[in-house]
Backbone:
């Protein structure tokens, strides 16, 4: 579900325990659900895949190959 609440999508480089902002913005998109994730609520990502996840469940789905 893609929500539109304004703002601009950020571009990030995901590291193992942090991320670096490449292009400023307010949110990133979950790679599994398409949901907007405000940067201040971003808790789950894959440095290997360079993807963000809206929840632990979305991350687990991606890891198990279910998407």
Residues:
């Amino acid at each position: 579900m893609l929500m539109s609440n304004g703002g601009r999508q950020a571009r990030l480089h995901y590291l193992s325990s942090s991320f670096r902002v490449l292009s400023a913005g307010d949110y990133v998109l979950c790679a599994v659900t398409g949901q907007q994730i405000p940067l201040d609520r971003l808790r789950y990502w894959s440095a290997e895949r360079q993807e963000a996840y809206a929840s632990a469940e979305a991350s687990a789905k991606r890891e198990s190959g279910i998407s």
